[in-house]
Structure formats: structure tokens, C-alpha cells
Amino acid sequence: MNYEKLSKLFYKIDADSYDKEFIKRKSSYGSYSTSLTVRGFRKGHLTNDSFELFYVNTHELMKLNNEVLLNSSKISSLIRQLPKFVVKPYFNKLIINEAQSNNEIEGIRSTKKELKEALNALEQSEPQHKRFVGLMKTYQFIDQIDSFKSVRDFRKLYDELVADEIVAEDAPDGELFRRGYVEVNDGNRTTHIGISSEQKITEALDALIDYLDDESHPQLYRYMVAHYYYEYIHPFYDGNGRTGRLIVGSYLSSYLEKYSAITFSYAVNKNKEKYYKALEEIPSPLNRGEMTFYLINMLELLLSGQKGIIEDLEFNLMKLNRIKNYMKSDQWVDYKDERELFYIIITINVFVNDHVMLSVQELMKISGKSRHIVNKVMDYLEEQGFVELTSRRPKSYKISEDCLEEILPS
């Protein structure tokens, strides 16, 4: 028999066979029980059923788990091949993409320009009154977020990540979390009802912390189960999706690496229907609390994000080889400083943005050269048509389109 969803088998086999299949799955050698319970949910209403979440480590799930680990190793290897000066700008590009996707999933309006300005404000230690500074700070240090040891840690993350973006009527009205009723609606129907009181929210979050510490469960499965359970608890009136995806990202970054972790929302945003369907199927009474197929879907999403990064890095590293060959030509032999600065500009252009502009100050910081040398070099590169002056205050440059087309023809 193919391994199918219990909710499908219910309509294919008789009731006795269905019950036997459920018991077989729940008690099999490859089964993991979580001690986390959920209320049944059907047609917009909670049912009287209660289920312990469990999953079975099927061949398909194990295969996906191994693929994620192999891709993570590949990403780390590719990142090591990047010039050091481009590693941080490249990660910042991923942060902006991820934050934009996370906002889009929740219907929060933000532009990449806004997010980049928030990131710049953070890096320059400007007063943190700009929108999304907290969001960008959290993403930038995603691999430094401590594991959650107290329910207060969930509130702390909420305050740092989304509190400034939440309207007053949706702010937490309990000691740490919400006190009142909350439901999720997709515009046509109710798809979820959160846990009913702050006391029960706190108890469920305590259980979630215990589960996150349970090393008898494989890490990837554990973190994805925890992601679902946090969304099921729904501790806040608003901001649960953004904080929930950041929580799973923080654990993934500690187990894999931050590049895989940071693409999770980006992958979800491209496959929102798959993501929400996977979440909504779990509390169905016919599903009996099984999470195997949810885990398969989540690992597939994670894999799609990883594959996107791998393809991007491999393609850009091929471009980098062409750039290196170009820089070996005779025209650069007597122009060491010019060659170094132009290599920096074109490499950042390839890995970060086709239209990236770099100021004299930024070029000084990256290259370690004096203002006098940088100004002299940039005057030469502009005169030769390699770069264009885009701003006088601050003095900034971008690579010229003709030059880019000559070196890296599309």
C-alpha cells in the first residue's frame, strides 16, 4: 500500500481498517510522538476531538532530510568560494528578499528600498525610528538568536520584530500575550481558531519549549513541528506568521547555516497555497494529528529555497571566473589599484545588484585604500568608461552598462 494521508484513506477503506492503520502508524518503529496536543477543527469550527501530534519517519521524509543536509553543505562550500568583501553584501541581499517575502505573506506593505534603508540605518547606528529596523536587525543576526528557554522569550522576539508595525487594537492585552479570542480568516472562511486564553497559551508555549529541547526527535523534524505548533497556539492577535517563520529560521540557522534558514519565507511566499494547506490539514479530525505529510511539504519548501541559492551562487561564480580572466588582460598590468577597485565594483554588481552604487567611503572601507587613491582611481575608471558617476554628495559610482555588456554579455 502507498503511504497516503489518513484523511484520504478514511474514504477508501472501511472504518475498522482505518482504525488499524492509524494504530499501526502511531505505534510503528519509525513513529515519533510529540506530547503536543491540538483540538480538532472542521468547517470553520473547533470539534470536541483532541489529538497528540505524531509523525512517521517514512522513506520519503528521510530522503528529503538527507537532501537538505547535503544542500546545506554545498551552500557552505559555495560561500567559501566568494571573495570576502562580497559575503556580507550578498547575505544582506538575501535578508531584504526574505523580509520582503515575510511582509508580503502577511499583507504588510514594504519596498526593498525601505528595507535597504532600514538595514543601512542599523549598520550606521542611526536612531532606530525607521520602519523595519527591528525586523532587519533580527534577520541580520538570525544565527545569534538564543534558543527559547522561557515564554518571555517569545514576547521579547515579538517586541523586537513586529511590535512597531502592529496597530494599537491588535497589541497584546494580557501580561505577555493576548487574552481574547482570535481566528484566522482567508477572506471566505475561518481557517483556524487560536488557543482560548492567556493561561492556556502560556501552558502550550511551555510545552513547546520542552519539545524543542527533546533531542530524541531529529532536528529538522523538530523545528518544523515546533513551527506548526507555534502557529496553532497563535499567542498574539497579529504578527504570529512573521514571528513564527523567524523562530523556525533561528533554529534552522543553528543546525544548518544562515543562508538556508533565511530563504524559508521566500520559498513560502512562492508557494503560499502549499504552505497554508499543509498547516490547515493537521487539525482535521480525519487526520488524527499526523504530521508526516506536513513535514514532507515543509522540507520541500526548504529545499526549493536552498536550490534557489545554489543556482544563484553557481551562476554568479561562473561569471566571477570570466571577470578574473578579463582582469588578467594586458591593459591592467600597470594599473594595480585600478584593477583591484574595478574588481570590487563589478563583483558586488554581479552578486548583489545589477545597478548597485558604491560611494567613495564604501570603496575605501572595502579596499583599505586612502581617499586620495580611491578618488584618483575612480577618476581614471570614469575617464575610461568603466564606471559612471551617479552622485556627487556623497560621491558614488556604478559600473557602466556598456562595460558590463562587454565583460559579461547577456
Task: Explain how this protein is built.
The chain is mainly alpha-helical and 410 residues long. It has two domains: 306 residues, Fic-like fold; 79 residues, Winged helix-like DNA-binding domain superfamily/Winged helix DNA-binding domain (Arc Repressor Mutant, subunit A, Orthogonal Bundle). The protein is built from 18 helices and seven strands. A three-stranded antiparallel beta sheet has the order 5-7-6. Strand 3 and strand 4 form a beta hairpin. Helix 4 packs across helix 12 and helix 8 runs antiparallel to helix 9. It is elongated. The chain starts with 5 loop residues before the first helix and ends with a helix. The relative contact order is 0.12. Keywords: ATP-binding, Coiled coil, Nucleotide-binding. This is Fic protein family.
The strands making up the biggest β-sheet line up spatially as 5-7-6
User: How would you classify the helix and strand content by structural class?
Assistant: mainly alpha
CATH superfamily of the largest domain: Fido-like domain
Low-confidence stretches: none
Number of domains: 2
GO molecular function: ATP binding
Coiled coil: 98-125
Organism: Bacillus spizizenii (strain DSM 15029 / JCM 12233 / NBRC 101239 / NRRL B-23049 / TU-B-10) (Bacillus subtilis subsp. spizizenii)
Binding site for ATP: 238-245, 275-276
